[in-house]
Amino acid sequence: MNKILIVDASDSDCRLMSGLLTRAGYEPVIAEDMEAAKQEVAKLSPGAVIVSAMKFRGGTARELINWLKEEGYKFPVLAVVDNLVPMELIDVMCDWGAVNIIQRPAIDKQLVEMVDKYASTENVMFFLHAHTP
Questions:
Q1: Whole-angstrom distance, CA of residue 10 vs CA of residue 48
Q2: Element (H, E) at 28
Q3: Spatial contact of 42 and 87, defined as CB atoms under 8 Å apart
Q4: Rg (CA), the chain
Q5: CATH 3.40.50.2300 fits 3-118, yes or no
Q6: What percent of the chain has pLDDT over 90?
């Protein structure tokens, strides 16, 4: 089961996303500010995804992505955006480094689909048991 780190300023959005991800078989972890996010990132295993609000307590998605790059973490970041205009969306994805965006008004429709797209199964292990006659 992949962990999904949610970094968001809104308690209601965190509850909604956590519920959706849990039902989809993921293990959501919530960080309410930049320091908590940094601590949780250090605990993530390969295959994890980060879902971040554009602005949250103590930071922004851009600052979080820059920190991830500086520290050498390669987790995909999905940015939760309000209805941005196309040029702002390009800025978020190209300049900031988010791999994709989720429109806040459509979290319930887009979140699980986007996480499924970027969550890796690298950390899934299969054990084969020898069958003895």
A1: 21
A2: strand 27-31
A3: no
A4: 16
A5: yes
A6: 50
The pLDDT, as a whole number, for residue 104 is: 84
The structural domains of the chain, with segments of one domain joined by +, span: 3-118
Nearest-CA neighbor of 8 among 26, 25, 32?
32
As given in the structure block, the two tokens for residue 9 are 């300023």
- Of the chain, the end-to-end C-alpha distance in Å amounts to 33
Give CA–CA dist 106/68, Å, rounded.
26
Which tokens sit at 5? 């780190």
Q: What are the helix (H) ranges across the chain?
A: 11-23, 34-41, 61-71, 86-90, 107-118
- Return d(Cα 88, Cα 129) in angstroms, integer: 52
Structure tokens at 131: 């069958």
Tell me the pLDDT tens digit for each residue of 93-115: 555 567 787 888 889 999 999 99
Question: Cα–Cα distance between 27 and 18 in angstroms, integer?
Answer: 8
